[in-house]
Fold this protein.
Amino acid sequence: MEYPVDRSAQPEARAERRLARTLNHIANPSDAASGVLGAQQCKGPLVCGLAKMEYPVDRSAQPEARAERRLARTLNHIANPSDAASGVLGAQQCKSVQLVNNEPRKKEKLKWNGWGYTDSKFLFNKAGNIYMSGHRYNLAGAELPYLREFVEKEMSVSIEDKTNPQPPPKSFPQPQENPGFLREIEGSYVRVSFDGMERLSHAHGHTCQEMWDLRYGKFARIPDAVIFPGRHEDVETIVRAAHTHNVVIIPYGGGTSVSTALACPANETRMIVSLDMHEMDKIKWVDRNNMTACIEAGIVGKDLARKLEDIGLTMGHEPDSLEFSTLGGWVATRASGMKKNTYGNIEDIVLNIKFVTPTGVWSRDTQVPRLSAGPDLMHVILGSEGTLGVVTEVVVKVRPLPEVRRYGALAFPDFESGVKFMQEVGLRRLQPASIRLVDPPQFRFSQALKAAPANWIEALAAKAKKAYVTQWLKFDPNEICAATLVFEGTKEQVAAQEKNIYTLAKNYGGVKADEENGRRGYYLTFMIAYLRDLGFDMSFIAESFETSVPWSKTYAICQRVKERIAEECKKAGITVKPFISCRVTQTYDTGACVYFYFGFSHKGLADPVGKFTHIEHSARDEIMKLGGSISHHHGVGKHRKEFLERQIQTVGVHTLRGIKNTIDPKNIFANGNLFDVDPSQPSSSH
């Protein structure tokens, strides 16, 4: 089962909602308002234990057993109103507020030196073909007979080029402890850890450079302790104590950063605390009158989506890292999601932020749709990347789940035609929830990720489709590119969107493909990072990076940056063919977000990670020369901060530094992201 799940199509979920409504009315017959829990109900909150769906669903789970457990929890809440979970809203608030299920999240095992779950990875079977292990993804268990040939031909790698990573370390640097700080925060956390592996896991994000150090090297500095606060007041106490005792805090959400934002500055001599927000993962309230929700910052994206889905709502924010990244991390990096076209970027969704700094707590005193009260300080927090404080709670917009969700796909004869189509879609504001265009190399890659046909009928159908495109339509197989589409809305809205998109595509030689191709393309996003781990295993180093560009330069930047990467690879002494591709993703009236992917075989190459970093920075230099941005949504961190002054000018950096010195005069939030607090002493993470 793929994520997101349309709960309206699940009989068990529908029955569950009916049961919840019935039990509500039994317990409180006078509170019959649909969708809102009344004051009496809130006294011992009737919170239905709705399905705890982890992405994707564990198919081995027994629906009957799950239903029994949920019913037992529901009846227990009715019978024992005093057993209410802490943090329940008062009677007056409940008049317009709906409660949601906040049962503790399931702790999943994640890889210590790679992406994602330990049970999910790309492997070789006995026949030498690649498959994906585990049960979580739609490719899981399927043999991918075309993938090995693709990577050997297009990425110049071989199964014989296998490299083995180092085992998990057994010894770790002695932690630097600050006794006064530790005494002052006693009782103000769920737990504190000095465990070596836990400290190591909080010392990095997921750039290829950090993964390289985990697999083959080491970090110059790791946190001295990991602290898990359980509520906003805990964070206030911890930050206040850190300010008093001069302890460094690095906020930690999902650990998915690709900007070295979580790396500890190597020259930091103070105690460093990684403040892990995962225990703060509750939806505090949902206001259906105003369609807003107050949510703790440590909630993981897939859990947030599930909890809102359970009550028929969505926030609509779906980044590629949805399974692991957190709401607080989205705010800190000014994140963007795949359905930005319908729901907006994170700055369009957020109404208020509770933000703990060394000099006090910042928050607006009201949730209004717009405010004219001087410069918007909330936008200082959005994108601050852990340099000013910690996000603890966020008030966001929510919407009803879409009535209809459909997928689609288009094929174009060449990339330039596809880009022109995307531009007109943006200019005419015809964007569906998601529309993404991949270039020819990435299209061929996606085709290589298909499983073998299940039977002769599927095989015959696949041949017929290929013949139609290449022989009847005369598309060059080496030039074909494709767009994947997601449509959401009412039945009528989706029908209109589909008609507009497919009609417009014809003007650029576009041909409608089947819905399943669109669905596959959308959900492959969640598996791409696992492929990088397979590349590491085969002596192949790779990374993605993104930018935003105006429409007038989109095609030129795509072409020129790929050329620059190829040129720099030759200069670096890389003799094998590198893999270089791009895709156009989020679209706007005036431009688009463009992702680039590149990698190369490093077999026999000296200092491959150093060469890779130089090539990546050269590509960034080319982007900015041509009028692109430093980043669209990944942020700056330490990895791209050499480009920040070039992007926002000297006065911009001085302004940020002035804010930093006012809010955090002791540099407690000293992760070294964005800019150096003292330009004469640049921070370093390696």
The longest helix spans residues 551-571. The radius of gyration is 25 Å. Residues 313 and 333 are 24 Å apart (CA to CA). The longest strand covers residues 540-550.
